[in-house]
Design brief:
Layout (H helix, E strand, L loop, with lengths): L4 H11 L4 H8 L3 H9 L6 H11 L3 H4 L28 H31 L2 H23 L14 H23 L20 H7 L4 H18 L1
Helix pairs in contact: 2-3, 6-10, 7-8
Length: about 230
């Protein structure tokens, strides 16, 4: 509980634009105690875990970081997203894969929506071009890897040789990422000018949650899952 619970409670509170004072009052505890929970100074009991899960309408598993699905089903367990048609047929493994596809599709689609909305707000053609280029190369690489998993699939749709595309695409992304950093810092890169001084977007979890109430939870889950994977490599 010590690792994820404090962060998830803080995140849920800020998503809803609630103060610690308000949440503490609603839950009939002191603001100081709630602050200790959010900072990980103290661990709550099971009764409070259930109480705060009900308050935010999420599952206890979600608060503990055991699932990225926050909703609660009738049985008290995390409720999965609406399954695709293929989830209702096939083996148990196929159903699990289908559910994973639905879940991750939502995480990525919602997060991409936020990225492009923010790019539009920057009103910077160069930053939009370079970020789009980076993401398109990522999609290209994944499509080609999946397509080429079967050696019998014709390679005519690709013009870059199989021996070259991995190294070239990785190098391209490294260069584009450097350009993005320059443009975001207000410096020119290639043919593009950086973001004008004083026009960078002010962001915080509270702002993101207010601006993108439907998509923000997916972004937060994507960040958490990605960082969890990163930590395993450190």
């Amino acid at each position: 509980m010590a690792n994820e619970f404090p962060r998830m409670v803080t995140l849920l509170r800020k998503e809803r634009g609630l103060s610690q004072k308000k949440v503490a009052l609603d839950l009939n505890i002191s603001q100081a105690l709630l602050s200790h929970y959010e900072k990980g100074i103290r661990e709550c009991g099971l009764d409070f875990m259930v109480k705060i899960a009900d308050y935010f309408d999420v599952s206890c598993d979600y608060l503990l970081g055991r699932t990225s699905e926050r909703s609660i089903g009738a049985n008290g367990y995390a409720k999965q997203a609406a399954p695709s048609a293929s989830a209702n047929t096939g083996s148990s493994e196929e159903k699990r894969t289908s559910a994973l596809v639905d879940q991750n599709r939502k995480l990525i689609n919602d997060s991409m929506s936020i990225i492009f909305e923010l790019l539009e707000q920057t009103d910077n053609r160069g930053l939009t071009t370079e970020v789009s280029s980076y993401l398109m190369v990522t999609v290209y690489k994944m499509v080609r890897l999946i397509y080429s998993a079967n050696a019998k699939n014709p390679q005519a749709m690709f013009s870059v040789l199989p021996e070259l595309y991995k190294g070239v695409s990785n190098a391209m992304q490294a260069i584009v990422e450097t350009r993005i950093s320059c443009l975001a810092a207000g410096r020119p890169a290639g043919d593009f000018s950086g973001i004008a001084s004083g026009t960078s977007i002010q962001l915080s979890p509270d702002i993101i949650s207010r601006s993108f109430p439907d998509e923000a939870p997916s972004l937060y889950n994507l960040i958490r899952e990605t960082e969890d994977s990163m930590k395993k490599l450190i």
